[in-house]
Amino acid sequence: MLAKKLPHPEHEEALKKLICALTRFAMVLGGFGKSWRRADHRLFYEEYYENEYKSLIGCHWQWLTERSLALDVQVRKLDQLGGFIDKVQQTAIEWMQLQGITPNPAQKAPWREAWHHDTVQVWGREADSTEDSQAIFWLHQPYQDEIRGIQPSGSIYRSSLTGQMGQIGRLWHRMYPVVKLVRNPQDPNGKPIPRTTPKYLEFLTLFPDNSTESRQFLQFLNSQQNHPNSFQRLW
To answer: How many separate domains does the chain show?
Structure first.
């Protein structure tokens, strides 16, 4: 893992901790591959491929072992997401401090996708199944009020927020499997074991710009927060 030996043993431990945290962060909110910013359309938008051949869109993470389900799934409920992100950032800060760097939250990095409260928002909701994704349709057609059946004129399709050919978007969409910890009747100590469910935590990560589409979409999300099963701002 290390290209060269670190000067202090605690530095190596801190680096391993950081890599583990970043890997878990990538599996919660990030992705892998050419269109990693999207959830896998084969799983969550099957009808997209019904009428004609289209390129594959999106990615989806899976865990192969029970150990991974128990240790690496750090977000099991919506209200755990904010604390999880804060913990990842704190792990990065601890590594930087060991390298003689003191981060200043008042001076955010100029990167377009810098993780700072002034530049990124994370929204989430719980979906009951693969067919219950809401945001995946907003990437292809005007978004609508699922509660009242109202379809506003706003759209993020092929905007600077969602991107298009030759332009990288500012929105990440993940369908993160819900894994529950349940009591193991065969364990006398009562250590819980992980169990998959049909549900997903649907996350939208936004890096807003000054476009009309971006402002209107955030207004739409804010207007929905009091309705059950709608997106809530988590970070």
So the answer is: 1
